[in-house]
Amino acid sequence: MNINQNINKLLYALKQKEQLYKINSFQFYSEKKEKYSIKYQVLKRIFEEIYNIKEDKIELVERYKQDYECYSKIDLMKYLAGEYKKIGSEASE
Questions:
Q1: How many whole angstroms separate alpha carbon 56 and alpha carbon 70?
Q2: pTM for the complete prediction?
Q3: How far apart are the first and last CA of the chain?
Q4: What is the C-alpha to C-alpha distance for residues 79 and 6, in angstroms, rounded to an integer?
Q5: Model confidence over 24-56: pLDDT tens digits?
């Protein structure tokens, strides 16, 4: 099984636990390595309470905040596996 499949399965498993993540990737030129590299950003869904002045009530708004940055898919997979383990240990308490 390749890394992409593992990442997709971890994202799906986290989604089943109602933890939604987005992954952005950026390609940039590294002068130190003299080649192009890819940077991965993990964005985690959070809900914020925002006061709506017009309707005079508090609403929940879905936002994504940056949670993690890495430069390899293996690190990305390890991070997602750690997040899944954290959720599993919280559920068993």
A1: 42
A2: 0.80
A3: 32
A4: 12
A5: 999 999 898 899 999 999 999 999 888 887 788
